[in-house]
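Box 4.2: Ligand-aware structure prediction
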Amino acid sequence: MTDSAIAPLAHPPTVEPEFARPPLLGMTLPELTDWVQTQGQSAYRGKQLYQWLYQQGARSLADISVFSKAWRAEVQDYPVGRSQLHHRSVAPDGTIKYLLRLSDGHIIETVGIPTDQRLTVCVSSQVGCPMACDFCATGKGGYVRNLALHEIIDQVLTVQTDFERRVANVVFMGMGEPLLNRETVVAAVHCLNQAIGISQRSLTISTVGIPGQIRRLATAELRATLAVSLHASNQPIRTQLIPSARQYPLADLLDECREYVQQTGRRVTFEYILLAEVNDEPEHAVELAQHLRGFQSHVNLIPYNPISEVDYQRPPTRRVNTFLQTLHAHHIAASVRQTRGLEKDAACGQLRASKIQAGQ
Ligand code: SAH
């Protein structure tokens, strides 16, 4: 950070006032080193700050006991960029849903999903979501704004601290459409990798598909996994489920995904929600297989998680299995995503802003 960032602004701020002093969380080691030096401290304090922010999860500069008391008192109000825990609910399967309050009062959701092997965090990339997919609770509450870098990193640190366990995987599958906040999400991937030590291969960015954005993401040359929410085997069903698909023909989306594979050498995951008697017939599986023949990809089938606003049904297990077997019979790599956190509305597509704001 430079001095100019904390100098008085010539124009009224267009962002939340707190951001007039950019929060420290999300900054790289060189940026933190610059910042401590602008505060009159020695460069090595930058390394200490970096470790305390990302490894110890310091929530305030006042907590950093290796700093001198006098300097701590001076900078104790400087924004670190941590959100407040508003609510926490534990599902019977051990999944924990967190409601986090941002500095401007908005609430977002984050989910911690433990297994014996690893802890996964499902992070939000926006407050709400503008995509309005018919089956998804987040879209029903509307859209407020993109998350800032520190607000994404904070989610991972919050879960890591609460579970007292290292986060192994991060999936951008919480509230929001990550590719509408692409630059911040790419910065978050680098920060989670470099500062928190999570392998890029253990990070997944899930998108419904925004024209041109997958191509732009490819230029970032990440080793993270791209997951694309396909949900339909043809354009008419897709537009029925996903309003934005009207401006993005399925064939064009698949072309962009193919280019992504060519450019990055990474296979793409296709997410496919199974909605009873909407897109779960064996002929839909055959149609999907035809699109994906020879495509370096993996299909992730997600049995629909119910939300109150719409009356879609989750297909019975035998229909899910038939769909899976049909894909396999056509040599398509596919698996069924295990549902987690259903009892606490923490499963895929059940994260929402509206009810939470009312404190429910
Ligand atoms: N906007 C991004 C990421 C958020 S949603 C995207 O669309 O990919 C993460 C995944 O959960 C997406 O595949 C989304 O379509 C799926 N999902 C949404 N609502 C769901 C529901 N009710 N049941 C199961 N999965 C759902």
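In the box above, the bound molecule is S-adenosyl-L-homocysteine. The CA atoms of residues 193 and 350 lie 28 Å apart.
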